[in-house]
Write a structure and sequence with these properties.
The protein has about 160 residues and is of the alpha+beta class. The chain is built from four helices and eleven strands, in the order ααββββββαβββββα.
Length: about 160
Amino acid sequence: MDTASQNKLEQRARELARVPTAQEAEEHIELLVFRMGGERFALETTSLVEVFRARELARLPRSEAPFFGVTVWRGDLLLLLDLRALLSLPMSAEDQLTHVVVLRTDRSALGLLMELEREIVSVPASEVREVAETKTYVRAITRSGLQILDPAALLRL
């Protein structure tokens, strides 16, 4: 091996062996960002099963908000929620409910209709503040104002 290659390998080894600083080692939360009623919301990616384009949606006759309808997902019917109604957001013609995000527990699955920003962000845990019980479906807010929804509360509907 020539000297240049040896030096490059030694440099890489030093970088990999370096102990990260406290700031570098800080825990981060990965979030899927979406927009509703002019506001930005997020869900932790650890709570998501799948994201797919909204197609072949069937409205439920006489259903009340926030229940929107159903779609077929993995051979079963998936109940869909319209988060605008659930979060008391204005219904806007500008909202393009183009995607379904699936949340699931051992016993049930639920689809959330939303307009994705096609953005996954990693936020330092130190920038996330838990909120009071007043907003039942929002569990935390980031320093930048991004509202993080509580998937467990949504699945209890």
